[in-house]
Design goal:
The complex is a heterodimer.
Chain A (H helix, E strand, L loop, with lengths): L2 E8 L22 H29 L5 E5 L1 H10 L1 H12 L3 E3 L16 H18 L5 E3 L7 H9 L4 E5 L2 H4 L8 E3 L7 E5 L1 H8 L15 H9 L5 E7 L13 H14 L3 E2 L2 H7 L4 E3 L15 H4 L2 H12 L1 H7 L2 H9 L3 H5 L8 H8 L5 H24 L1
Parallel strand pairs in A: 1-2, 1-8, 1-9, 2-3, 4-5, 5-7, 6-10
Chain B lengths: L1 E5 L10 H15 L3 E9 L15 E7 L16 H17 L7 E5 H15 L3 E5 L3 H5 L6 H13 L2 E4 L2 H10 L7 E3 L23 E5 L8 H14 L4 E5 L5 H10 L6 E5 L3 H10 L2 E4 L8 H8 L4 E4 L12 E3 L4 H13 L1 H14 L5 H25 L1
Parallel strand pairs in B: 1-2, 1-4, 2-3, 4-5, 5-6, 6-7, 8-9, 8-11, 9-10, 11-12, 12-13
Helix pairs in contact in B: 1-13, 2-3, 3-5, 7-8, 7-11
The chains are: A alpha/beta, B alpha/beta.
Chain lengths: 396, 394
């Protein structure tokens, strides 16, 4: 029988406040504390708190039930500051022993796409530290920002000793093959395993649940979905999604909480079990290899990295930040390094997209800016300001 | 379908915004098999010259009128004098007397200046009345001593017309909020652009920046030129090589010059005075940024002209056309720091310049006069239905 492997991404970026050249701070405090707090409060009340409670109840009710999470460092940092109770409820989940916490970069960054992976490794280490300190866990499975994955990233993550890495189960990589099996990267003698998101079944919950009568399967009920799960073949059904699926992207009125409440029971009744990512890759041998020379991700219809690097504005911001690396390192000032890394959070360039078709709407839904151009101007103003401050300090 | 339209000016002799609108609109309506009787004043100044001889797509009735001034022509005169007001009333009276379009299905008037005649025709004939609002007195005065008696006419038009066409959602909202319009009665229909007048510049080179920032509009309080010049000061403080062009004439020029002198930026600012279309085209091409910081701009057609030329554009949030554009930068009209920041960002970042310019040039293509005509025809049908429903209810 095939197990469900739930993994929820829990991330909040630290958003910038509107800064123009005439109101730059003296220090590197570029952040919109009020807005970050307001959003964190809202999402905590609508999603994190009620969903965590529901999952704890489900674990009590069903000894078989398991989930996994990846908490970005920027999320943990803001939870500590704004809502310690949210962090506390994740600790309670960790203590059950049935919630696996995955590694990622602390800053939810695109450092995996840099030629030099030293920065990626540093950000993974920062995440290790915060997970151990705040949740008392040492992750063994890695998920990269937005499931961005390529051969190089897999190699680096393997070298760090992780059991597995998650990515998108796109046909571009799988061809005719099913995402429901354990795979290995194409490089020879690889020890690391790859889990691929079953995007059809994941997106049924994450994106189509509230779509209304335009979707022929609407409304999606727990028994119906459990029937689909029971029909799946393979090692694992990888249901990967943003945690905000519950209560934020799908409102409570959509019935999403009822769905989540009843789905595990219905699945267990039909003989479907639950596993965490590390359990899956320890239990099963890979059935084949995947070859990914160009980065893939779970974003947009292209499932590549164009959501962040499609246009030249995004590339300029990305490159300017990357080129600062040696100077930030040389200066070695904790506050400046932290600010520089917070600017690397992928959301900042995500807001700058100008892709026309369809996806523009979802980008703008998440964006605190009124247009991608305003997002770029603000981001570039801050990056250039940081650059000037770094150079000024080095010259001294 | 037949419409009796009451206008104020019509090309080729008078080519203000309203005249161009009426020409483009009637051309499109004629293509959709709408018959048009067009009433307009014949100014004594024009002598024997007849507008009607220049157009075949509509029947023009030129009504003798005193020489007067277009409300859109000369902004240096705030507060129309008595002679002008008399000329307007006389014209409206004479339109009523000259009205022969007994077979028209609908009467269509533009702005306060033609409304009185339309109202009287409606009273006498019972024909449905459509009133187009291109701007209100609040817009034209930018809140600076609006004339109450004009507002009263606009209020009457909003109250008594069977349907009101606002030139943007921004204006529609203003009519609902400040003129108590029934929301169901007001539709927003955007103007179009005649793209043939403006060469497209998809091959424009964004690699080099001329560091030229353009203001091209009437230099009147309504258009926010002081915000532009205050932003110029902010920019020049950061980058002395940036040049600013103020193209257009208007009552604010002296105040702007005085500001430039007092703030030591006169060397960076060029005042060109009025520029004809062909020169405007060259200015749009030369400029890295076009800025329209209007205090209150019902539509803002120059924004579309600049964007057609591939010029990155900044508009105030109180500019109607901005509501329908993605590929522009928007700022509060009073926020010259924000405007200055946006100008500097465009001048200093090629990717931004190029994305705004190229995407903007494509985006403006949706503003066709064909669409404006089609939606106006729909508005006529809606007005007729509404008038019918009113009669039945009565």
């Amino acid at each position: 029988m095939t197990d469900v492997c739930f993994y929820f991404e829990v991330h909040q970026p630290v958003r910038l406040r509107r800064l123009h050249l005439f109101n730059m701070p003296q220090d590197v405090d570029y952040w919109d504390h009020a807005k970050n707090r307001a959003i964190f409060e809202r999402v905590s009340n609508k999603c994190y708190i009620p969903t965590n409670k529901l999952l704890l109840d489900l674990m009590e009710e069903h000894p078989e039930f398991k989930v996994s999470f990846a908490l970005s460092g920027t999320f943990v940092e803001q939870a500590k500051k704004f809502r310690p109770d949210v962090l506390e409820s994740f600790r309670a989940l960790a203590e059950t022993g049935r919630a696996e916490f995955l590694e990622e970069t602390y800053y939810h960054s695109l450092a995996g796409l840099w030629d030099d992976h030293a920065e990626l490794k540093a950000q993974i280490q920062a995440h290790r530290d915060v997970m151990e300190k705040e949740l008392g866990v040492r992750p063994t499975f890695y998920r990269n920002t937005e499931l961005i994955y390529d051969n190089r990233i897999a190699k680096t993550i393997e070298s760090l000793g992780y059991l597995g890495i998650a990515t998108e189960g796109t046909e571009r990589v799988l061809g005719w093959r099913s995402p429901n099996y354990v795979y290995a990267p194409a490089h020879g003698e690889s020890k690391i395993r790859v889990l691929l998101k079953n995007y059809k079944l994941s997106d049924d919950i994450a994106f189509r649940f509230s779509s209304g009568p335009t979707w022929t399967e609407w409304p999606l009920t727990a028994p119906k979905y459990a029937d689909w799960l029971a029909k799946q073949e393979g090692h694992t059904i990888n249901l990967f999604m943003d945690y905000e699926t519950f209560g934020e992207h799908n409102w409570p009125e959509s019935g999403i909480f009822d769905f989540l409440k009843h789905m595990p029971g219905e699945a267990i009744q039909r003989g479907v079990g639950f596993s965490t990512p590390s359990e899956v890759v320890e239990r099963h041998e890979p059935v084949g290899t995947i070859e990914v020379p160009f980065a893939i991700s779970w974003a947009d219809t292209e499932r590549d990295v164009s959501a962040w690097l499609h246009n030249e504005m995004q590339q300029q911001a990305f490159n300017t930040l990357r080129e600062l690396a040696p100077y930030v390192k040389e200066l070695n000032d904790p506050a400046i390094t932290h600010a520089w890394r917070l600017l690397q959070t992928s959301d900042h360039v995500y807001y700058c997209t100008t892709k026309h078709m369809g996806d523009q709407d979802i980008h703008m839904y998440f964006s605190p800016y009124e247009s991608p151009y305003q997002a770029f101007i603000n981001l570039m103003n801050v990056i250039v300001d940081l650059k000037h401050k770094v150079f000024a300090r080095l010259r001294r | 379908m037949k419409v009796a339209m009451i206008g104020w000016e019509f090309p080729p002799f008078m080519a203000g915004g309203l005249g161009i609108h009426c020409l483009e609109l009637t051309t499109q309506l004629a293509r959709m098999d709408v018959d048009i009787d067009f009433y307009m004043p014949h100014m004594a100044l024009e002598g024997d010259l007849r507008v009607a001889e220049h157009h075949k797509h509509l029947k023009i009735y030129e009504v003798e009128a005193e020489p007067g001034l277009s409300p859109y022509g000369d902004s240096s005169r705030r507060g129309y004098d008595d002679a002008f007001n008399d000329a307007v009333w006389q014209y409206n009276q004479r339109v009523v007397d000259a009205f022969v379009s007994e077979d028209a299905d609908v009467v269509h008037a533009h702005d306060w200046i033609t409304y009185k005649a339309a109202a009287e025709i409606k009273r006498r004939t019972g024909k449905p009345l459509v009133w187009s609002c291109h701007s209100t007195e609040y817009d034209r005065s930018a809140g600076f001593f609006p004339q109450q008696w004009i507002i009263e006419i606009e209020k009457a038009a909003v109250r008594d017309a069977d349907l009101v066409i606002a030139v943007s959602e921004l204006t529609r909202k203003q009519l609902i909020e400040r003129f108590d319009a029934d929301p169901g009665k007001v539709v927003a229909i955007h103007n179009g652009v005649d793209f043939s007048k403006w060469s497209d510049h998809m091959d424009r080179d964004y690699g080099r920046s001329n560091k030229v920032v353009l203001y091209l509009s009437r230099v009147s309080r309504q258009k926010g030129p002081m915000s532009f010049i205050r932003a110029a000061k902010r920019v020049v403080d950061r980058d002395r090589s940036v040049r600013f062009i103020v193209a257009g004439k208007g009552e604010m020029v002296p105040e702007m010059i005085s500001y430039c002198i007092q703030n030591g930026i006169m060397e960076n600012v060029t005042f060109t005075g009025f520029v004809p279309d062909n020169e405007a085209q060259r200015l749009y091409e030369a400029a890295d940024v076009y800025v329209l910081p209007s205090v209150s701009e019902p539509f803002g057609i120059s924004v579309l002209e600049a964007m057609t030329s591939g010029t990155p554009t900044i508009v105030s949030k109180t500019t109607g056309v901005g509501e329908a554009l993605t590929h522009v930068l928007r700022a509060e009209h009073w926020d010259s720091d924000e405007i200055a920041d946006q100008i500097l960002a465009i001048l200093h970042n090629k990717p931004l310049r190029e994305a705004l310019g190229k995407n903007g040039a494509l985006e403006v293509r949706k503003f066709t006069w064909e669409r404006c005509g089609r939606r106006t025809l729909e508005a006529y049908k809606l007005a007729i239905a509404r008038a019918q429903a009113m009669k039945v209810a009565a």
